[in-house]
Amino acid sequence: MRRHIPGLHSGHHGVFSNLDGLFLVRVERASYRWHPQKPFLALQFRILEPIAFEAFLFSGRLYRTERALWKLTWFLRDFGYDPELLTRDQVDEKALLNLRGVVRTTYTNLNGHSYQNLDSFAPAAEWEALSCVANNQGEKEGTHDDL
Q: Which of 51, 92, 102, 146 has the maximum number of C-beta atoms within 10 A of its C-beta?
């Protein structure tokens, strides 16, 4: 049986890759992925602001190696993760859903693959101040990527 699904061929499904900038986001999906050398937390974010990117999704990874634990901890604290679970060294994938915060992203092309980098984080309450600073710097330097 054939079904007609408008927009199927367009390739535009509300998922962004290669984002570069500062975004207010909400965690849509989180899953822990085991890997022998580099286990990681795979995250999918929904962009809430800026309005031009509203409702689009992007994904990123936070590694759980000893050298990268500081970044995972930074993310969890700034996004308002349950402090009790954090003090017990536990990450509950369900507790991550719908957490909100600010993330600065860049992307890297390596060996023909594009990777979304999660460079820095801030609490959602700081969005207004951070977005104003980003806009002011972008106007001065002609770009919004210099924060």
A: 102
